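RECORD TYPE: protein structure
NAME: Metallophosphoesterase
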Amino acid sequence: MALVTRRRVLRALGGGGLGLLAAGGLGTAQAYRFGVTRHARPLPGLKAPLRVVFLTDLHYGLYIGAGSVRAWVDAANAQTPDLVLLGGDQLDSRLDEEPQALLTELARLRAPLGVYGVWGNHDYGSFGRYGGRHYGPARTDWLAKRGVLEAAFANAGVTILRNAGRPLRDDLYVGGVDDLWHGQPDVGTALAGAEERATLLVTHNPDLLPELPQEVGLTLCGHTHGGQVRLPVIGAPMVPSRYGQRYAMGWVEGAHGTPAYVSRGLGLSGIPFRNLCEPEVTVVDLQPR
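PREDICTED:
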C-alpha cells in the first residue's frame, strides 16, 4: 500500500527534482488553480442524454478550507449537471466534530438526479480507522464516527453509497463501493439492482478496476491525483497505485472492457503543492448508444 507522504515524494524527487520545481514556480498557484475538463462518451443502455459532474479528492482539512470547496461547488453548479458524484477523500483531518463548513458548501450542489458519493482512504483516517501525524491516534469508535458522518452528509444532500446503489431513472443506475484499502468493496452488491439500466460505478481507488467482477457502463475513480507532482518527460515520480502509471489519470480500461476515468482530483495530499497536474472538475456528457 503506497501512501503518498511528504517524505516519500521528496525522496522520489531528489534534490535536482526539487530545484526544477522551484525554477518552474511550483507552489500555491498550481496547487489551488483548477480547471474544468469536458468529455463526451456513449453509455450503453442510456435512452436520454446525461450530464455528470465528478468531484473527487477534496481533502477538506489539512490544506483545503471552505473557500476552495465553495469555488469547486460554484464551478460544478455552473455546468448545470443532471447528476453530481463525489469520488471519495472528501475529508482529511481529525474530526472531533462534524465538518460544518464543508457540509454547508456541499449542500449548495444542485442536480435534479441528486448528489452521491463514496468514501476514500483519507476519509477512513478522518474517522479514526487508522492513526497518523495529523489524524492523531486511531479511534476505537471509528465505526460509530463513520455512521455519524454518513448521516451528516445525508442531511447536507449527499448520499454516501457504501456498496450500495440507486435507480435514478428508468434507464440509469448508479452504484458506489467502499474504499479498497480500508473498507470492503463489493461491486456485485453495489450494482445488484441495475437490471437492464445503464450503469455508473464510483470507486475511490482505480486499483479496483482489474478486479471488476462484471462489465460496467462507466466507472469513475479518483485517489491518484494524477501523481500530484509531475515532471517533464518522466511524468509522476510517485503514484499511489500498485500499478504505477497505468491508472495515474485520464481514460483507462478495467476488466471486461469497462471504460473508466481517473480524475486528477481537486485537493492536496501529503504535500501542499502540485506541478504540471492541474486540479479538475470533471464534466462527462453521456449519450445513448
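COMMENT: Helices lie at 6-23, 28-32, 66-78, 100-106, 121-127, 142-155, 187-190.
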